[in-house]
Amino acid sequence: MEDAAFTLHDNNNTTSDFTEFLSDGFWLETTTTTTTATDQAGSNYFSPHPLLLDTTTNQMDPPTTQLPPPRRLWIGPNTLTNPNPTIPVNTRLVQAIEYLKNYTTHKDVLIQIWVPVNRGGKHVLITNNQPYFLNPNSHSLLEYRNVSQTYQFAAEKDSKELVGLPGRVFLKKQPEWTPDVRFFKREEYPRVRYAHQHNVSGSIAIPVFESGSGTCLGVVEIVTTIQKTPELEDVCKALEFALQL
Questions:
Q1: In degrees rounded to 5, what are phi and psi of residue 114?
Q2: CATH 3.30.70.860 for the 7-243 domain, yes or no
Q3: Taking the model in full, what pTM does it have?
């Protein structure tokens, strides 16, 4: 596929909602866990955590993930103490994620944001009309983006809504990483049929936290068509670096 820069799509009609969530600053946080698919055999959900993939694993072995020491990535409020006080926090988050394009040689990456909204008296996560990044040459990920916009996931406990990957990350307040979402069951990853259809494999989802309260404000989801390569580790490192700009 021909190299191309990511394209930012920012839907102005919902920017104010996103700004409200992030106006006082927020954390992106990782935790320390090593997980294999067999570790979660008795669980309803396979919850592999980021950020480093064991690329030496035999193809017949269960996927393995490993984390470095815990870290927090602080995105400060839009005040005079910021280097760019005129740039809203939500805009800086979007710019930071776009910065990933300079650190990944593989361009088939979709980055989208899931935020909680109130629908019919219940809170659900949606990505519809939210900012996202996409290589314009990646038709499969464009189709997957369109599919994702039709979904909503649980944003509160005891909900009857589908949980899915964004919902798990939001409710557990822990990042989740998997090298291939196509191994999920439908109840674990409701979009699995479309992942097969559009060749989606690796996925990273990271919770966004409010400063001080520990409240989860939303989820950043990174979807790729790549699986066991160092580039997935590069995505995580680039996201951390970019958010510290």
A1: -110, 125
A2: no
A3: 0.66
